[in-house]
Amino acid sequence: MDAKRIAAERAVDYIQDGMIVGLGTGSTAYWAIQKLGLKVQGGLQIKAIATSVQSEELARNLGIPLVSFAEMNEIDMTIDGADEVDQELNLIKGGGGALLREKIVAAASKQFIVIVDESKLVKRLGTFPLPVEIVPFGHEVTIKKLYDLGYEPRLRKIDNETFVTDNGNYIVDGHFGDIEAPQELHNKLNLIPGVVDNGLFVNMTRRVVVGYQDGEISELEK
Ligand SMILES: O=C(CO)[C@H](O)[C@H](O)COP(=O)(O)O
Fold first, then answer.
1. Same structural domain for residues 76 and 154?
2. What is the CATH number of the domain that holds 93?
3. Catalytic site includes residue 56
4. What is the C-alpha separation between 178 and 126, in angstroms, rounded?
5. Which domain holds residue 47?
6. 80 lines ligand 1 (CB under 6 A)
7. Closest alpha carbon to 50 in 20, 6, 17, 15
8. Is 80 annotated as a binding residue?
9. Minimal-distance CA residue to ligand 1 atom 12
10. Widest CA span of the chain, in angstroms?
11. From the centroid of its chain, how far is CA 156?
C-alpha cells in the first residue's frame, strides 16, 4: 500500500465519535478523508471543517457532515499533510496552495496530527521551496521585499496562469537555503505588508505519523 495512505489511515484511528475534525489538503490528506468517509458511512458521528474547497467537495461527496467557524470555534482534531517535517516537528506546508486555511484550522485545533511518507522527513527545513501567500494588490512590490530578504521568490503559475488560492491570493515559492531559525523567519515574512501568511508551521504539531514504503508506520511525538 502507498506510504501516504498507510500514515493517513493510521491517523484516522484517533478520531472518535462526537469530534469536530479538521480536514487537510493534498494527496496524503485525501486518503484520510476517504477513510473518514467510510467510517462515517459505517456510523461514526463527527462533523468536519475543510482546509480547501477541494477537500470540502471530497468530504461532501463522501457524506461527511460539514460545519463552519460560524457554528463552532474549536476543532478537536485536525489531520493534514506536510511538505517537510524537521526533527523538532516544525513543518513546511503549502505545496498544494492551501497554507492559509490550513494554518487557521490547525491553530484552532486542540490536536493537530501530521501525516507524511518518509520522504518528507528532513534534518533541517529548506530544501522544499517555502510558499508565501501574498495579496494580488501590489504583489510586484511585495515580491521585491521578499527578494530583499534573501528569498528568490517565484510567482506560482499553473499552465502559464498565475495560481490563485481559495482566498483569492497569489503564492510565491522560493528558497532560503537551510532554515536555521524557522520562528524568526516566519515572523520576518509575516511583517511584510502584502504577505498574508507563509508555509512555516512552527511548534504547531506534537504528533507526526510517518508511513514507509515497506508498509511500516512510525509516530513521532513531541
Ligand atoms: O500543505 C499542503 C497543501 O497546501 C499539503 O499538506 C502538502 O503540500 C503535502 O501534500 P501531499 O500530501 O500531496 O504530499
1. no
2. 3.40.50.1360
3. no
4. 5
5. 3-123+202-221
6. yes
7. 20
8. yes
9. 28
10. 54
11. 17
Distance CA 209, CA 217 (A): 7
CA distance 139 to 172: 10
pTM of structure: 0.97
Q: Tell me whether strands 84-85 and 91-92 are parallel, antiparallel or unpaired.
A: antiparallel
In this structure, the answer to whether residues 12 and 115 fall within a common structural domain is yes
* Protein residue whose Cα sits closest to atom 7 of ligand 1: 82
Bridge partner residues of 8 (DSSP) = none
- First-last CA distance in the chain: 27
Q: Work out whether strand 154-155 and strand 157-158 pair parallel, antiparallel, or are unpaired.
A: unpaired
Catalytic: which of 9, 56, 102, 133? 102
150 Cβ contact partners less than 8 Å away, ≥ 6 residues apart: 176
Distance 96 CA to ligand 1 centre (A): 5
Q: Total structural domains in the chain?
A: 2
Q: What is the pLDDT along the chain (222 residues), one digit of tens a residue?
A: 799 999 999 999 999 999 999 999 999 999 999 999 999 999 999 999 999 999 999 999 999 999 999 999 899 999 999 999 999 999 999 999 999 999 999 999 999 999 999 999 999 999 999 999 999 999 999 999 999 998 889 999 999 999 999 999 999 999 999 999 999 999 999 999 999 999 999 999 999 999 999 999 999 999
Which ipTM score applies to this complex?
Answer: 0.99
